[in-house]
Amino acid sequence: MYAQAFFVAVFGLAAIGFGVVVFRTSSMVRSALALLFSQTAVGCMFLAMQTEFLGVLQIMMMATEMSIMAIFMVMFMMDPGGMGGMDMTHQKRFSIGAGVVAAGVAIVVAFWADWGPVTAEAPDAAMQTRALGIELLGRSMLIFETAGVTILTAMIAATAVAIPVQTTANSADKEDTE
Amino acid sequence: MNFVIVLVALLGSVWLLAVIEGWTTTGRLRLTAPLLSGLAYLGRESIVPRTPDRVFFETAPVLLLIVAVLGAAVLPLAPTLVIADLATGALFINAALAYVLVALIMAGWGPNGAYAMIGGWRFLGQLIAYAMLIVMPITAVAMRAESLVTTVIVGSQDGLWNIVYQPLGFVLFFIAAMALAFRAPFDLPTAPGELGGGVDAEYTGVRLAVLRLARLTLVITLASATTVFYLGGWHGPLLPPWAWSLIKTLAVAVSMLLAGRYLPRIREADLMRWCWILGIPLALLNIIVVGLLVLVVP
């Protein structure tokens, strides 16, 4: 019990620490990977709380997601390595205010919400995986399928937007440049 | 105790693979060559490039080694010889291998060099495509075993190995494993002769030694995963279970090596196109076929 609390605290602090690094660095890749390791620490918190499937899934998903985010940040930012001395922050006062308010709300919810009775003993990991599978293919199926189809639609739309429209005018331009 | 045995087996396999690799390239069988070249690396100067991202530069080789060993931790050599028999073993190995990508991006970005950076980002595209061909065939394997536990997966192949039960899944997984381990003909992130070493380019001395060790360990881990998921793991006559696991793992690793020696490097665009247009539909087909087999065949 104490060991569990200890590890949850250690990974929680690591998550916050990496979260701070996200904003303390000017390098976009460092920032993205710091966010990745912050999320990995959250995954480790799941593991420490004996929710094996969710923990492993979190650790797996974040690796590719944050890496993709890193390359997009490199593509779109003017100083991706942070070596040009550009100030990457803006709206500082507003963001400090928003951060403090959000943290306050989170703390209030954490202490005042009725979390229900705490489970004395977590079911074993295989049972959890099974229960999760039945939940995903039962009551929650509509929610996840809707989300999945929405994301797929967005991906197809984004790809369609990215493909240049071929008109007679710009195909002539292309031949000229070639 | 299991931890020590598996680690020794892993190191031994890496050494044998390095010996065989040297044998196929130089034509001479020298058992001490990997040790001597390892020692030579330690003796050389380990250069740090100008204005590197020092954290990434130092972390990348070590991270690659750690994820390769973590992946091997859930793969059983024998019914009880496994470091961690997790309830989510088949998912855990995916989670560990996803960080190969992170390590390579770090190795690419860290040294502040053009070739390294191109190599690192190239691997991003390569892995995002081929990770699907790792995950989807494993899904079909888990469907047959009705479990994510790796020892149960091997148990489910008693009598009929998955290479026979789902040959399409095996072919896709084998190709994807080679792409994930960035072995030739999928060695686009390093691409000797084209990118001047790519992610390896700026690494020298002890750091390069760790990187090379990590890469060979990754090959063995993936060969072991192929054995566990498709070649019946420890099943086999006469010899003890662990011996079968090791023999099959080495055979898969050597076949990856040979495939790389006789095939030219694939163009990046072709690599992506084949995966997204051909590989992923085939992986989906494999899931459907296995699903039908599981539900229809008693």
TrEMBL record, chain A:
<feature type="transmembrane region" description="Helical">
    <location>
        <begin position="55"/>
        <end position="74"/>
    </location>
</feature>
<comment type="similarity">
    <text>Belongs to the complex I subunit 6 family.</text>
</comment>
<feature type="transmembrane region" description="Helical">
    <location>
        <begin position="32"/>
        <end position="49"/>
    </location>
</feature>
<keyword id="KW-0812">Transmembrane</keyword>
<comment type="function">
    <text>NDH-1 shuttles electrons from NADH, via FMN and iron-sulfur (Fe-S) centers, to quinones in the respiratory chain. Couples the redox reaction to proton translocation (for every two electrons transferred, four hydrogen ions are translocated across the cytoplasmic membrane), and thus conserves the redox energy in a proton gradient.</text>
</comment>
<protein>
    <recommendedName>
        <fullName>NADH-quinone oxidoreductase subunit J</fullName>
        <ecNumber>7.1.1.-</ecNumber>
    </recommendedName>
</protein>
<keyword id="KW-0874">Quinone</keyword>
<dbReference type="InterPro" id="IPR001457">
    <property type="entry name" value="NADH_UbQ/plastoQ_OxRdtase_su6"/>
</dbReference>
<comment type="subunit">
    <text>Composed of 13 different subunits. Subunits NuoA, H, J, K, L, M, N constitute the membrane sector of the complex.</text>
</comment>
<keyword id="KW-0520">NAD</keyword>
<keyword id="KW-1003">Cell membrane</keyword>
<dbReference type="GO" id="GO:0005886">
    <property type="term" value="C:plasma membrane"/>
</dbReference>
<keyword id="KW-0472">Membrane</keyword>
<feature type="transmembrane region" description="Helical">
    <location>
        <begin position="94"/>
        <end position="113"/>
    </location>
</feature>
<feature type="transmembrane region" description="Helical">
    <location>
        <begin position="142"/>
        <end position="165"/>
    </location>
</feature>
<dbReference type="InterPro" id="IPR042106">
    <property type="entry name" value="Nuo/plastoQ_OxRdtase_6_NuoJ"/>
</dbReference>
<dbReference type="GO" id="GO:0048038">
    <property type="term" value="F:quinone binding"/>
</dbReference>
<keyword id="KW-1133">Transmembrane helix</keyword>
<dbReference type="Pfam" id="PF00499">
    <property type="entry name" value="Oxidored_q3"/>
</dbReference>
<dbReference type="GO" id="GO:0008137">
    <property type="term" value="F:NADH dehydrogenase (ubiquinone) activity"/>
</dbReference>
<feature type="transmembrane region" description="Helical">
    <location>
        <begin position="6"/>
        <end position="25"/>
    </location>
</feature>
Automatic annotation (TrEMBL), chain B:
<dbReference type="Pfam" id="PF00146">
    <property type="entry name" value="NADHdh"/>
</dbReference>
<keyword id="KW-0472">Membrane</keyword>
<dbReference type="InterPro" id="IPR001694">
    <property type="entry name" value="NADH_UbQ_OxRdtase_su1/FPO"/>
</dbReference>
<feature type="transmembrane region" description="Helical">
    <location>
        <begin position="163"/>
        <end position="182"/>
    </location>
</feature>
<dbReference type="GO" id="GO:0009060">
    <property type="term" value="P:aerobic respiration"/>
</dbReference>
<feature type="transmembrane region" description="Helical">
    <location>
        <begin position="123"/>
        <end position="143"/>
    </location>
</feature>
<keyword id="KW-0520">NAD</keyword>
<feature type="transmembrane region" description="Helical">
    <location>
        <begin position="242"/>
        <end position="263"/>
    </location>
</feature>
<dbReference type="GO" id="GO:0003954">
    <property type="term" value="F:NADH dehydrogenase activity"/>
</dbReference>
<dbReference type="GO" id="GO:0005886">
    <property type="term" value="C:plasma membrane"/>
</dbReference>
<feature type="transmembrane region" description="Helical">
    <location>
        <begin position="55"/>
        <end position="78"/>
    </location>
</feature>
<feature type="transmembrane region" description="Helical">
    <location>
        <begin position="216"/>
        <end position="236"/>
    </location>
</feature>
<comment type="similarity">
    <text>Belongs to the complex I subunit 1 family.</text>
</comment>
<feature type="transmembrane region" description="Helical">
    <location>
        <begin position="90"/>
        <end position="111"/>
    </location>
</feature>
<feature type="transmembrane region" description="Helical">
    <location>
        <begin position="275"/>
        <end position="297"/>
    </location>
</feature>
<keyword id="KW-0812">Transmembrane</keyword>
<protein>
    <submittedName>
        <fullName>NADH-quinone oxidoreductase subunit H</fullName>
    </submittedName>
</protein>
<keyword id="KW-1133">Transmembrane helix</keyword>
